[in-house]
Amino acid sequence: MASPPSQNKRRVLSVVLKLLILTSIVLFSLPFIASLYKSEPGSSEESFEHYRSVNLSGLGRGTLLKIKGYSTEVWVYRRSLDDIEQIKLMPEQLFRDPLSHQSQQPPDLLPRFRSYHQDYFVFIPLESQKQCQVLLDQILSGHNGFNEVCYRGVFDTAGRALKAHGHRQQLNLSVPAHRWQDKDTLLLDRRL
Predict the structure, then answer these.
(1) What pLDDT does 42 receive?
(2) Consecutive 10-residue averages of pLDDT for the chain (192 residues)
(3) Which domain holds residue 32?
(4) What is the three-class DSSP state of 145?
(5) Is 155 part of any domain?
(6) Is 112 exposed, middle or buried (0-12, 13-18, 19+ CB in 10 A)?
(7) 44 in a domain, yes or no?
(8) Same domain, 82 and 148
(9) Residue 46 is assigned to a structural domain of this protein
(10) What is the pTM of this model?
């Protein structure tokens, strides 16, 4: 039979071991519990700490703003009235992915315009195959759009790839995570 000091040591060790196990379980479960309470990107509860504010009040129609300071450059194109009309009128059969089901973009954009605001197109100016940079140019009967020299791909002012040009697997231009604070202030996600 074990002596009383030996039994006391066992009880103490047993209690310490149980406390260590319980503490470990609590510490490992905290990140999982915290992840349940994080807000979705773009929700009103999300803090603005991850967003960079860009004032677009001086950007004229038909002009482009290049924003640096991210892992990749972000461009904002303010569409002309003709651009907006062209997006509305161009038949969907001309595009590889007209409603952007395969393209990288926030899920709640206006489908045809690929933006939250029909006047502005916020995008990453790289095509999807070789990451070649696009250029603002006159395309299709003198209307504005974007093209690239690697595959000679052509995109409208919503960044949709035209079927008749470029590589057959080219996707639409990517739209980064962003939101609007007001009609002239764009909030770009800093985590790009």
Answers:
(1) 45
(2) 76 90 87 67 51 90 87 90 92 87 87 91 90 85 85 90 83 90 88 61
(3) 1-38
(4) strand
(5) yes
(6) middle
(7) no
(8) yes
(9) no
(10) 0.71
